[in-house]
Design a protein that fits this description.
59% of the residues lie in helices and 14% in strands. The protein is an alpha+beta fold. It has three domains: 168 residues; 51 residues, SH3 type barrels; 86 residues, Alpha-Beta Plaits (2-Layer Sandwich). Strands 4-3-2-1-5 form a five-stranded antiparallel sheet. A three-stranded antiparallel sheet has the order 6-8-7. A hairpin with a 5-residue loop joins strand 3 and strand 4. The N and C termini lie far apart (122 Å).
Length: 356
């Protein structure tokens, strides 16, 4: 420490300080140039990786230049070789740390972009980002320990034994973790999908974390499901294989109705609804399928199509209103349940019925 104090008070640090300041300016300019080049290069692609690269490299290039400036500035001093060795080791650790942070940022950002592009979902899963950060940080830590000549084999062995003990102690937690990875790897359930569980809960998948999957219901509440429960549940995914889905509306008309006219009026109303109501698939041609002679009416199903699951509510609402009005205008009856009871009018018939 005395050697460093003598150096700071002797005025010999002015040249290294100027060298360090120059490296700071050069690092700032180099970072601007590199980001500008990356922006031009990534603009030619549709992947949109520039934001991830910019967030990952922001400040890191300047830090590397400053680190290099510190190295050469120290070389200009009169420090003893022992002191220089410590400084060089510290600077190398700083370089490894900087590269590790940059790798974590860039990798997590690129994976996030890939997830959004592949899944078509606005939110991304946090479990993938967290796993990548942990792996890259541990790799950087092992590189630092190896550079400092600290044996890493005992550490890896201890981590293995400790990992086995942790696995026994946290079976439920690890079960949820690997279930979450299985959910993401299978790609059957993704953030943004509208799903319904066999227990009745339904809503949009908001996120898949290392322990739970959160589902945002239509009333805007959050349902938290452990990943292990979700992996073993029977799930209906209304976004797979496509968001568009058929909507079936059951209708019944009187036996005296002209079924040709009923079909024509119904299909016309359905086509107008699909074309005019938001969420309806305007290119789809609705159709009618008669299927049942019930006790008091002829029943049929109208097949419509919506862009996604939640659009069906508004579409059904408008379709029922317009269809009811159209049936009234065309004199088509929608009968109520009714039963016809015949009574005997003469006394003898009634008595014979009682005796029998």
């Amino acid at each position: 420490m005395a050697e460093i104090y003598d150096f700071m008070t002797s005025g010999q640090f002015l040249l290294p300080l100027a060298f360090l300041a120059g490296s700071l300016v050069l690092g700032f300019l180099a970072e601007k140039i590199v980001l500008r080049i990356l922006k031009k290069v990534t603009a030619r692609t549709k992947w949109g990786a520039y934001e991830a690269l910019k967030n990952g490299l922001r400040g890191m290039i300047t830090l590397l230049f400053v680190t290099a400036g510190l190295y050469f500035a120290i070389r200009l001093t009169d420090f003893s070789p022992e002191v220089l060795v410590y400084y060089q080791r510290a600077l190398m650790v700083l370089v490894i740390f900087s590269l590790t942070v940059a790798a974590v940022r860039v990798t997590a950002g690129l994976v996030d972009i890939y997830v959004r592009k592949a899944e078509g979902a606005v939110p991304s899963t946090t479990i993938l980002g967290n796993m990548l950060r942990i792996v890259i940080f541990l790799t950087g830590l092992l590189v630092v320990l190896s550079y400092l000549d600290i044996p890493i084999a005992p550490i890896i062995t201890a981590l293995g034994i400790g990992g086995f003990a942790v696995a026994l102690a946290f079976q439920d937690t690890l079960s949820n973790l690997f279930s979450g990875l299985h959910i993401l790897a299978s790609r059957l359930v993704k953030p943004g999908d509208f799903i319904k569980l066999d227990t009745g809960e339904e809503g949009y998948v908001a996120d898949v974390t290392w322990r739970n999957t959160t589902i945002r219901t239509l009333p805007n509440n959050m349902v938290v499901v452990p990943n292990s429960r979700l992996a073993s549940a029977i799930i209906t995914n209304y976004n797979q294989p496509r968001k568009e889905m058929a909507v079936l509306v059951d209708v019944g008309v009187d036996y005296a109705s002209d079924l040709g006219e009923v079909e024509e009026v119904t299909v016309g109303v359905a086509a107008d609804v699909l074309r005019e109501v938001p969420g309806g698939s305007g290119d789809f041609k609705p159709f009618v399928r008669f299927h049942t002679f019930s006790e008091y009416r002829i029943e049929f199903t109208v097949v419509l199509r919506v862009n996604e699951y939640v659009d069906q509510y508004r579409l059904k609402h408008e379709f029922v209103k317009r269809l009811h009005r159209a049936y009234r205008e065309h004199g088509i009856d929608i009968p109520l349940p009714a039963r016809t009871i015949s009574f005997a009018h003469d006394r003898e018939s009634m008595l014979s019925g009682i005796r029998g």
